[in-house]
Design brief:
There is one protein chain. The protein is built from 8 helices and 28 strands. With about 375 residues, the chain is mainly β. A 6-stranded antiparallel β-sheet has the order 1-11-10-27-28-12. It has a 6-stranded mixed barrel with strand order 3-4-9-5-8-7. Helix 2 packs across helix 3. The longest helix has 10 residues.
């Protein structure tokens, strides 16, 4: 039983239960949110040098691959640093880890942050709750130093969870580091990546993700590692600056359109393991690939049939992206399960898709780039 698939809904159904204080935006942030910062930096070299020192380099954060279902890396929080494993999640925008005061079962088998041991921690009296499709967490908003590789952000807003739903007990990571847009932050604090850029810690306002079936997956902060893909990146615009949301032209199998015939919206989400879509389309796909639901709602196929199943083709901005059956069917201990699930919102292009296609997330120009990932 692959209970870890319950985590698929983690990054979509988020609810804010507090109203953040209104803060005035800097000129840089307003330009960035309006998609004009990249053009300004290109036109004004001195301003570009201010934000991108010549000796700066992109920083690569290695990721652990757990059964092609979770990808997570190491960060540290506080002074002296306390280490945690987190999912670098483009489908959310907050950083949270368990607190030492958390008494939930889900916290019992994960590392917990002890605020009393950090000399740089700044506490607040604010409590933040985040609701997910399969559970929730609640905790205290604090500020502290956060380290990702060699990048050190100071006064970073984060949540120390004091209660968590039981489903997180089965996760192999401690917390989540959101890489979505600031408007997605439920606490009203700037995401970690935004602080990396605003504090001048990375050379470009961009990060990229390479997920493999091997042991060399990574997130690159401040640049693109072209050794992880072949060909050229194809850039598409972000349609709504909250999630990394784009437009899909169509989704087909065997040249038959199953969804998005007239176009639809999709989220590129590193925090979701599957490809998810509207119930009608996903239901028809499951039926046509011979997937049958078990008592837990997971869909299984006969492993011997994988070689005869059709490729899925996702067309984005005129480019066709093929996802073969060997990618969308998961094989674990002789059991084969479908990598498609339903969602009530936009389609979700999760890890199944990202393992096939390297992805770059460009905040300066508000666009997402795709290229064929190098297999490892």
């Amino acid at each position: 039983m692959r209970l870890l698939l319950l985590l698929v809904s983690v990054t979509i159904a988020q609810a804010l239960v507090r109203v953040p204080l209104m803060r005035s935006k800097s000129l840089r942030r307003r330009l960035q949110e309006n998609g004009r910062l990249g053009d300004l930096l290109a036109r004004v070299p001195d301003l570009y040098r201010k934000y991108t020192p010549e000796d700066q380099e992109a920083v690569t954060e290695p990721l652990v691959n757990y059964m092609d279902n979770e990808y997570f890396g190491s960060i540290s929080i506080g002074t002296p640093p306390q280490e945690f494993s987190v999912v670098f999640d483009t489908g959310s925008a907050n950083l949270w880890v368990p607190s030492a005061s958390c008494s939930s079962m889900a916290c019992s088998n994960h590392r917990r942050f002890n605020p009393q041991l950090s000399s740089t921690l700044q506490s607040t009296d604010e409590t933040v709750s985040i609701s997910y499709g399969t559970g929730s967490m609640k905790g205290a908003l604090v500020y502290d130093t956060v380290r990702v590789g060699s990048i050190v952000t100071t006064k970073q807003g984060l949540i120390l969870s004091e209660s968590e739903s039981f489903f997180l007990y089965y996760s192999h990571f401690d917390g989540i580091l959101g890489l979505g847009y600031p408007s997605l932050s439920v606490s009203g604090t700037a995401p970690v990546f935004d602080n990396m850029w605003s504090e001048g810690l990375i050379p470009e306002d961009i990060f990229s993700v390479y997920l493999s079936r091997g042991d060399n997956s990574a997130v690159v902060f401040g640049g693109i590692d072209d050794s992880h893909y072949s060909g050229r990146l194809h850039w598409v615009p972000v349609t709504h600056q909250r999630f990394w949301q784009i437009t899909i032209d169509s989704i087909t199998l065997n040249d038959q359109v199953y969804a998005c015939q007239d176009g639809c919206q999709a989220i590129v989400d590193t925090g979701t393991s599957v490809i998810a879509g509207n119930p009608e389309a996903i239901g028809q796909i499951q039926k046509d690939i011979g997937a049958v639901a078990d008592v837990y709602g997971l869909y299984h196929v006969t492993c011997d049939h994988i070689g005869s199943l059709p490729d899925m083709t996702i067309t984005i901005d005129g480019m066709k992206y093929t996802v073969p059956a060997a990618a969308y069917i998961s094989q674990v201990s002789g059991s084969c399960s479908s990598g498609f699930q339903t969602t009530s919102g936009p389609w979700i292009l999760g890890d199944i898709f990202i393992r096939e296609y390297f992805v770059a997330f460009d905040r300066s120009n508000n666009r997402v780039g795709f290229a064929l990932a190098v297999k490892s």
